[in-house]
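Slide 14.
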Amino acid sequence: MNVNFYVTCIADVVKSGVAKNSVLLLEKLGCTITFLEKQGCCGQPALNSGYVKQALPGMKNLVETFEVNDYPIVAPAGSCVYAIKNYPEYFKRAGEADWATRAQKVADRFCDLTDFIVNRLGITNVGAKLPGKAVYHPSCSLSRKLGIVKEPIALLENVEGLELLPIANQQTCCGFGGTFSVKMAEISGEMVKEKVEHIEEVQPQYLIGADVSCLLNIGGRLAREGSAVKVMHIAEVLMQQGEIKDVA
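Slide 15: predicted structure.
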């Protein structure tokens, strides 16, 4: 299957290993990857902050970029996928009906990585192996906004040797919330502190998530507390073959 890969800003700039492993995983599952170089930021930070007018040029660039073919578009971040799926409404509010129609066609093709693997490819076991105990963090964008709850769990439950541990208040936000963590830093700090306390209570070796931004937030707190818990994106986990490789 031909697939467009949308790298996202954070994966491109901060977590290149997530992008690399996402592409390798899709190729392993039989996909042929197209990377359209004109792709840019989805505009999520500006949109979340209310600067819709300023975000429109970048949004139009992204729509134009992915109009060149009709392949599915896969991204390793639910927050970006959710932002793009809301493009049509933003364009309508801006009085740009033609762009809203074009954006809808592109938005309909966007998928989170785990959603695509489970629901489009029909795969729940990718042959990964990773011994140890882990906590899965369900990001708000993925679980609440996109409704993708069971798909990441199904993939992780089929990782040989991996035991998923429940924690208290597992569904609670980690406190990142995009610009929320900047505008409400003290509240955000307390939220991630509580999240880390619950993670440490069960003493896992790994913290796994499907949104890089949440993992950066929780991972930062874990690091500041000297924790030995290794933070991994689900794409990195699904490419493991029995021992941890460099996922930087």
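Speaker note: Residues 1-117 form one domain.
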